Structures are given as C-alpha cells and as structure tokens.
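Duplicate of earlier report; Large ribosomal subunit protein uL15 input re-posted below.
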Amino acid sequence: ADMPSRLRKTRKLRGHVSHGHGAIVMCSCRQTPETPGSRGNAGGMHHHRINFDKYHPGYFGKVGMRHYHLKRNQSFCPTVNLDKLWTLVSEQTRVNAAKNKTGAAPIIDVVRSGYYKVLGKGKLPKQPVIVKAKFFSRRAEEKIKGVGGACVLWLEANAGKFIKC
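Output:
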C-alpha cells in the first residue's frame, strides 16, 4: 500500500534549489526566520543586541559569588495539623479503633504520608492514637497526650532500619 517513489514530492522537487523551504538568503540585509542567525537566542550580543538590551536587560554576564557544595532543601519540613491527622488513614481504621475493647491505639505514621512535623491546630476525637513524626510542636504534643495518645519520634522508632555509612 506504499506510494511509489517516483510519485513522491521529493522526486518532483529535485532540481529546484530551495526544495520547498523558501528562499534562505544569507545576507546582512535579510535575516529571514529560516536562517540560523534567527533561531532561538542566536546573536544576542551581536545582530539582536538592541532587542536583548531593551527587553532583557541583564541577560548576559554574572553576578555574585559562587557557592560550592551547596546543600539544598536543608529546611525542608512539610507540616500537617491535628485536625487533618485522621485523614491520613482510612475511616475504617478510626471506626475499628473506637470499637476495639482491648484499647490498642492505631498508629498514624505521618512521614509515610509525606509530612515531617505535626502542628497543634484543631481538635482530636476522644480516642487514643499513636502518632509517628520527625517533629512535634508543643501544642500538638499536649493535645495528643490529652486524648490518651502518644508521640513517637520517627527516627528513634526506625533507628534499626537504616544502615549508617
């Protein structure tokens, strides 16, 4: 079902100089969009300097000092409030924990959900819960212990799981 080569456009255009791509005239008076000197940011310091100076001042050059071995995201600490704490586990977990007569509190690992710190905004339901996090605010800790729960520091709980190099 392929088209025969002799009928293709490329065969018809043989012998025609520009081969269907327009007249690319390389002269200083005609910088057409097809020429390499018009592609992208070419000529920003030369033939396109007026445009760069007018619309993109400060595009060229450096400023400031280099910072070698920069450690990024050192202060990365996503937070979650107490009122959103139970949304991190299923509703069924909360209902089963309330029905449970043995008093086993459910464990909510906030680090698994992508949070590091628990903050104290909002109220907790009156049922004990064990919360694992890297950091707790003072109010969050008070409120969790106020409903009979416990605050477990995530690094201490998972101390044996990581091999220190």
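The first helix runs from residue 9 to 12.

Merging into the original ticket.
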